[in-house]
Design a protein that fits this description.
Layout: H1 3-33, H2 36-39, E1 56-64, E2 66-70, E3 75-79, E4 87-90, E5 97-102, E6 105-108, E7 111-113, E8 117-122, E9 127-130, E10 133-136, E11 138-143, E12 150-156, H3 158-169, H4 176-197, E13 205-206, H5 222-230, E14 234-239, E15 245-247, E16 252-253, H6 263-266, H7 288-291, E17 296-299, H8 300-310, E18 320-325, E19 332-334, E20 339-341, E21 343-348, E22 353-357, H9 358-365, E23 378-381, E24 385-389, E25 400-401, H10 402-410, H11 415-422, E26 427-430
Parallel strand pairs: 1-13, 16-25
Antiparallel strand pairs: 1-12, 2-5, 2-9, 3-4, 3-8, 5-6, 6-7, 8-11, 9-10, 11-12, 14-15, 14-26, 17-24, 18-21, 19-20, 21-22, 23-24
Helix pairs in contact: 3-4, 3-5, 4-5, 4-10, 4-11
Length: 432
């Protein structure tokens, strides 16, 4: 081989290597700057043809005057008058649309509707974006009684709803058995709340921790859908106090701190699976500053203000001068190394006193629950402040301990074993 041929070969190899390098650099750049999110294949929304009684109504926004809507597929808007229903089809897609209210009428992209209720239905894949977040199913808008605002409610089939809950309530990289247990518990809780409270209002559940956190498509992942699909239609049931059998409120919380609590002490309801069990599993999963959370303090004036705002009946107490366990054994649960407050006694400057459930007291002072993380704590009078020390766990502690479920899953327990442990006396059935 001549020297010229060797040179040409070297140049050619150099060009090929340069092309490979550039391809390796440019391809990710194109994916990043080209908006890889927008090019993802979006999973079609399942169960769109399921029976209406199973659809979940999630309150996304309440008492708003305006919101931003964006839909990537054609959609139509229908009013809520069956006899003279009007349907308007929109071909403009993937552009922001303003939804507002004026004189008691909702307007979509400037098109007013006279009905107090309208439903926005996207075509395949049945996804809409409200105020920057993607949701599946349909969007229902209901005018408030005063005609000055409206509520935005997501109408979504139960399985897609769950896909937006599981990844919001539990890390999707956790063990599959834990995710499956979470899916069954969340499905049961949703359908129970819908059945027992939905009939008296225009929505079934909120999207917040007031029920269970729902983030829509943003919480979905392959692992989440795997857990949802593998538990399709499965719920927990038990024998009720009146002798009937059916769904029950499958409460759950992040970290019980070592023992779950009897629901009767926290929420006032009595179901056999919610009596409370020892939990040696969550300590090895929860972060140390969550399992044992640091002392926190609140100004006494702030505490009084928060309590009186939430419970006007307490105004007769004046300034809150003392906070203590209610003084009887049934107002705190002793688990040996720690106790959970279940009721507190409030003494006021007027000399009068009253009682609150400890969980209500906690969330009145800290609605977020991020600081005063549980009622496993000691209350200390610090002069101008109330201090809460020796804190342990996160959440109300009733039902399944999520960190405990992960701990059990790490030990090879199945979803069924996890659920039977935290909800003793319950069993699994299919509802669809």
């Amino acid at each position: 081989m001549s020297s010229l041929t060797i040179t040409q070969l070297t140049v050619n190899r150099s060009k090929l290597l340069l092309r490979i390098i550039l391809a390796g650099i440019l391809l990710p750049c194109l994916m990043i700057f080209g908006g890889c999110k927008g090019r993802q294949l979006v999973r079609s929304t399942p169960q769109m043809d399921i029976e209406p009684r199973f659809w979940v109504r999630v309150l996304l926004v309440d008492e708003t005057r305006t919101c931003s809507l964006k839909i990537t597929s054609p959609f139509y808007v229908s009013d809520g008058v069956p006899q003279v229903q009007r349907i308007i089809h929109f071909d403009r897609v993937d552009v922001p649309i303003n939804v507002s209210i004026s004189s008691g009428k909702i307007a979509v992209a400037g098109q007013p509707f006279t009905s107090n209720e309208i439903i926005i239905s996207p075509d395949e894949p049945h996804i809409f974006n409200l105020n920057g977040d993607d949701y599946r199913g349909k969007l229902k808008l209901i005018v408030a009684a005063d005609g000055e605002s409206f509520d935005a409610i997501n109408l979504v089939p139960p399985e897609p709803y769950l896909a937006g809950v599981i990844g919001a309530e539990m890390p999707d990289y956790w063990e599959l058995a834990a995710l499956q247990a979470q899916a069954i518990a969340a499905r049961t809780y949703c359908l129970y709340i819908k059945e027992h409270f939905g009939s008296g209002r225009t929505w079934d559940v909120r999207k917040t921790a007031a029920n269970q956190v729902y983030l829509g498509v943003g919480a979905e992942s392959a692992q989440v859908w795997n857990a949802v699909n593998r538990t399709y239609g499965r719920v927990l049931v038990c024998r009720h106090p009146d002798g009937t059998e059916g769904l029950f409120p499958t409460y759950y919380s992040s970290t019980c701190g070592g023992h779950t609590e009897n629901s009767k002490h926290v929420f006032g309801d009595s179901f056999e699976p919610l009596v409370g069990v020892a939990c040696p599993y969550c300590k090895d999963v929860a972060k140390i500053d969550i399992f044992f959370w640091p002392m926190i303090q609140f100004d006494k004036t702030y505490v009084t203000t928060r309590l009186l705002q939430k419970y006007p009946k307490l105004k007769q107490l004046g300034e809150i001068t003392d906070i203590s366990p209610a003084g009887q054994s049934n107002y705190q649960t002793d688990y040996g190394k720690f106790s959970r407050l279940t009721s507190v006694k409030l003494l006021g400057s007027t000399g009068k006193s009253d009682f609150l459930r400890a969980e209500d007291f906690r969330l009145s002072i800290d609605p977020s629950g991020w600081k005063l993380r549980s009622t496993i704590c000691r209350i200390i009078n610090m002069g101008e402040k109330w201090a809460f020390s020796a804190g342990r766990g996160w959440g109300h502690g009733v039902g399944m301990c999520q960190c405990g479920a992960q701990g059990m899953a790490r030990q090879g327990k199945t979803a069924e074993q996890i659920l039977s442990y935290y909800y003793p006396g319950s069993w699994i059935e299919r509802v669809y």
